[in-house]
Amino acid sequence: MLPQPPERSQESIPVEPERQFTGENSRRQEGRDQLILPVSEGSCRVLSDYILTKTLGVGSMGKVKLAQHVNSGEKFAIKILPRVIPNPNTSSETVAKATVKDASNDIRPLREAALSMLLHHPYICRMREMTVHQNRYYMVLEYVNGGQMLDYIISHGRLRERAARKFARQIGSALEYCHKNNVVHRSLKIEDILISQAGNIKIIDFGLSNVYDPSTHLKTFCGSGYFPAPEMLNAKAYIGPEGDVWSFGVVLYVLACGKVPFDDRDMPALHAKIKRGSVGYPVWLNPGCKHLLSRMLVTDPSTRATLTEVLNHPWMTQGFPGPPDPHLVRREPLRFNEVDSNVIYRMTGFEFGTEEEVEKKLVEVLRSDIYHRAVQHWERKRCINKSRDDVTNEKHWDSSSSISLGYKSAETDLTASPSRKSKCFSGLDFYCRKLFSPAPSSPATLALHLPSKLPSNLSRGDACEPTDPTYGFHPLISIYFLVREKMERERVEGPGHFANS
Fold this sequence. Notes:
Strand order of the largest sheet: 1-7-8-6-5-4-3-2
Oligomer: single chain
CATH topology of the largest domain: Transferase(Phosphotransferase), domain 1
Strand content: 5-15%
Helix content: 25-40%
CATH superfamily of the largest domain: Transferase(Phosphotransferase) domain 1
Number of helices: 14
Number of domains: 3
């Protein structure tokens, strides 16, 4: 049986102060609590266009209620988080301190809303909208009606190998999508995985997520229970994706073994075990799965497997044509003279600054020599791949004219239907190899708040291959793409469209 996580000590993990921003789609209208009215003898409440009914779950930070849209009848999950309102009878100095603290408390739900409404992936639970009241946050989320993965494992124990692989591939697909858009989850755990009625996973709770720059370090140390990486517990600066790989490894261990790899009722003792990283594996565990876990649960992030290595591991690809599909939209490199002010306007929820500041910083990145070299390499590589594809297609049509042009999903199990391997390029491997391998000196950094002139010695990537300019190059570029793609989906499909799983 999977043990319940021990109570977390307040001083177990140091947390840096966060900064506040306002989500573009958040409706900050103070005093709107009058929209919540009791109906049906107090068993239900009305929130704007939604009728709130039963409680789906309760956590330390808030609760989740089932809701139904008044007009369409569609079901949603509404996450309700309390807000701390300062006492007006306190001194001005106390009020100032409380304001700073409240800004730190506000950043997480607002950032969660901003990212959850942008990320569009079949295995990520999306947010439709968010309403900010005087005392509470109300997040309208996609309703996942298949239950929690944790409940299933507690009731039935470990998963069969084939099922564990299926879910692991879906988790890896979602993480790769996030990382290639410069987003890290930072708090992945088994409780954050729901199962849809179709039998696929949905990752929830991006409250501790953040955007990251592959050339800088994050310093907010977060995580909970059995799942945080050792570098988080040791309060060491980190890039971001390597911590998600560790947590992914713990989740995979739970799926395959039915228990956590590190366990203790005492929090300090549990953290000591995680820092040591000594893992025991059941004798019956598949050798391939054991090898994969031994590469993920490595205490040193510089030698830990990258996500690309994980997704291309033989155990992960067994029975499939290749690594899981990250469901990425095809992009062309962004040019500085193509920046759309309408997209910039909707990027203001990430504390990048004012619209003018965001555009200035983005243009500086796009006009930098490093980005220019990355675009040139991307174009050369595409030309080479296009030439190869043309030759391959010509030979294909010459040799077999009767083959049907049917589409096969990347998640097709080869044991049931073998198909040709699909090529998948990952721009993530390069900077993971660069950043997580020993080097005589660290590269200069390119932070979110860029100086007026980029330093000439700034380096992204090594002499072998620049970073992909369309995925993972810089958070400003990634958020720009995500906002633009969201605007296009709303134009074609209407607002509030969820990715089908």
